[in-house]
From TrEMBL:
Pathway linked to the protein: Protein modification; protein ubiquitination
Active site: 93
InterPro entries the record matches: Ub_conjugating_enzyme, UBC, UBQ-conjugating_AS, UBQ-conjugating_enzyme/RWD
Protein name as catalogued: E2 ubiquitin-conjugating enzyme
Alphabetized UniProt keyword annotations: ATP-binding, Nucleotide-binding, Phosphoprotein, Transferase, Ubl conjugation pathway
Stored PANTHER family: UBIQUITIN-CONJUGATING ENZYME E2 (PTHR24067)
Species the sequence originates in: Erpetoichthys calabaricus
């Protein structure tokens, strides 16, 4: 009897697992929901220092389709999030996760949507960037978008948005303690490169952070002082 061939999506995900082990993305802690299931990942995001999310520990679930990487995964926060681009159920609304279809009414360029050259690394970096730099032109949460714009335009004098985020960050500390996770709160901690342990079954992708220096860049360098902070 011929051996059953592994689906191409599983092969792609195994390669991504290996890549993330060898070159982790700063600010994330990743595990497989079940050891034998490559299609469901649990992600914990550490809030970047010098932002409203500093010290936060935000959990999310990534579900990959069977035709990955030709179709995008879904990214849903399990932690309650108040953000212009996150729906009430936790689903993240971001161009990179939208299917590569021509939809002029969306206001998105086809180049901004998902394509098979994207990967989990670009998704993680896009999501953490989105936290600090929301898109208020097509919000998933209109009330959060209005509140964010008031905060930004008042240069922090209108504190309603910042106070909500601060309370959510504080609420995540209990979950971090329960999981035995030390959340980085300084750039020095956030940028520590930790060697990832080797696992034959790739079921435990735990890592801290990876940064070259205290620089900011599109390829995942650390966040220095940004415009939006506490």
């Amino acid at each position: 009897m011929a051996q059953q061939q592994m689906p191409s999506s599983q092969k792609a995900l195994m390669l991504e697992v290996k890549s993330l082990q060898e070159e982790p993305v700063e600010g994330f802690r990743i595990t497989l929901v079940e050891e034998s299931d490559l299609y469901n990942w649990e992600v914990a995001i550490f809030g970047p220092p010098n932002t409203l999310y500093e010290g936060g520990y935000f959990k999310a679930h990534i579900k990959f389709p069977v035709d990955y990487p030709y179709s995008p995964p879904t990214f849903r926060f399990l932690t309650k999030m108040w953000h212009p681009n996150i729906y009430e159920n936790g689903d993240v609304c971001i161009s990179i996760l939208h299917p590569p279809v021509d939809d002029p009414q969306s206001g998105e360029l086809p180049s901004e949507r998902w394509n098979p050259t994207q990967n989990i690394r670009t998704i993680l970096l896009s999501v953490i960037s989105l936290l600090n730099e929301p898109n208020t032109f097509s919000p998933a949460n209109v009330d959060a978008s209005v509140m964010f714009r008031k905060w930004r335009e008042s240069k922090g004098k209108d504190k309603e948005y910042a106070e909500i985020i601060r309370k959510q960050v504080l609420a995540t500390k209990v979950e971090a303690e329960k999981d035995g996770v030390k959340v980085p709160t300084t750039l020095a901690e956030y940028c520590i490169q930790t060697k990832v342990p080797s696992h034959d079954n790739c079921s435990d992708l735990l890592y801290d952070d990876l940064c070259d220096d205290d620089t900011v860049g599109e390829e995942g360098d650390c966040y220095e002082d940004r415009e939006f902070r506490n």
